[in-house]
Amino acid sequence: MIEFAWIWVFLVLPLPWLMRRWLPAAPEPGGAALRTPFLEEFDSLPSSQGVTKTKPHALWIAVAGWVLLVSAAARPQWLGEPIEQAVSGRDLMLAVDLSGSMEIEDFFLHGRAVDRLTATQWVAGQFIERRVGDRIGLILFGEQAYLQAPLTFDRTTVHILLDEAVIGLAGDKTAIGDAIGLAAKRLRDNPAEQRVLILLSDGANTAGAVSPLQAAEVAAREKLKIYTIGVGADQMIVNDLFGTRRVNPSQDLDEETMNAIAEKTGGRYFRARDTNELENIYALLDELEPVERTKHFYRPRTELYHWPLAAALLLAAVLGVSKLRE
Fold it and tell me: What is the pLDDT of residues 203-228, one digit of tens each?
């Protein structure tokens, strides 16, 4: 289907006729410098060629060229088939801990031991791909918090940026409060009805300018709901000089603060001790914050103005060549 974006441009179509009709004619060239008394006699002779001032074919070429030129100015567009697009209006920010403790290999993925960040990247990446219609953003934090990806519908790019994150990129310490504050700042001016932060960490707040609870109070005033996830196994077997022993790799996890952050903002705290629990948590988040099922449609537009414009220029060239041959 073809439509014109600026159809009002067709109002100028009669402009050449109006100019010819109402504007005064150009003055005739002056008389001959040398008067020939018998020149009037030639006027009475019949014309051998019967030449007219304007040839009919030249007039029609000019009219067609003008119509094509106006059509190009009206921006003809080809409308494609309607494409479904789900838009939920939710702004969802992910905050992922990159502190040094995330390199502890107490998770298993596809039968092999992996560090906490690798497991998080795998599970959170699948979660990102499922959030069709949400605007997703990514914050990476360690000793400082950085906005790695602003809010966007481009889930593929956010997924790639998460996979490219490396431990220690933002420092070895943990600034949970700064990550919450940055998320609240980035979501503050967005008109979304629902603002959600999913914060994943395996430790306690050991850096940053703002405490986690102070940042949570700010987030609550900004109507930012925070879901916190504490990652790390309760026990793992390590080798030392005296053989093997069991240790708690999550002894630094501040569950009390993580739970308080969630309660202050109307969210929930989750505990992920292995990959299965982490997957279940993200599946539960899909239920707590369901993807909007309202469907919206848009039709892709392809500009076609260059075709009538090229045809108009071609006719102008033909008209110019015909004039030169007269």
Answer: 888 888 889 999 999 999 988 999 99
